[in-house]
Amino acid sequence: MAVADANYYFISVDIGAYGSSSDSTVFKNSAFGKKLEGSQLILPSPTYLPKEENGENMPYVFVGDEAFALSEHIMRPYPRRNLSVTQRVFNYRLTLARRFVECTFGILTNKWRILHRALDVKLTTCDQIIKACCILHNYVRKHDGIRFKDKLYGTELQSLRPTPVRSRISSIENRQYFAEYFDSPKGSIPWQYEKI
Fold first, then answer.
1. Under a CB-based contact definition with an 8 Å cutoff, are residues 169 and 70 in contact?
2. pLDDT tens, position by position, 6-41
3. Which residue intervals define the domain DDE Tnp4 in the entry (predicted)?
4. What SS3 class is residue 184?
């Protein structure tokens, strides 16, 4: 489980879960997931969205895919059936945000090529290698900056299984607010309708 920011830095990694665990379970059981769910993380206070000074204060959120539960601080896409234009725009914009995480993994594996193949070591050694690569990734990013070609590398990330979960009403309302904002003149981007 990893959390990355818009500058391709790993903010939190939890190494040690293996292929048989679902991503939502891995996240829930991680130290980060437990602190987020228990309101123990120090997050910025809710604030207005850009160009919307008279709107509602919205919480800062982490973006995930269908495998994650919708919550106050986790946004996931709408289910892919019978979507309105507003919902399709939201899903597209969420996908754009999730690309930062995918690119962070791509940069990591491209820089530390040991991750291009299966590691033939004990599981504890494997965990240590991956943690070391994540730490070195952040160190190199800080000292070398961003190279455009690093972002062009694609990864072989596995597709995640959707996890059926019930969401709190406020989480659903938050997602709808973000969706309507992205579909409004204040929050839209010029090319989004061509991409949905």
1. no
2. 899 999 998 877 666 677 788 888 888 899 988 898
3. 2-138
4. coil
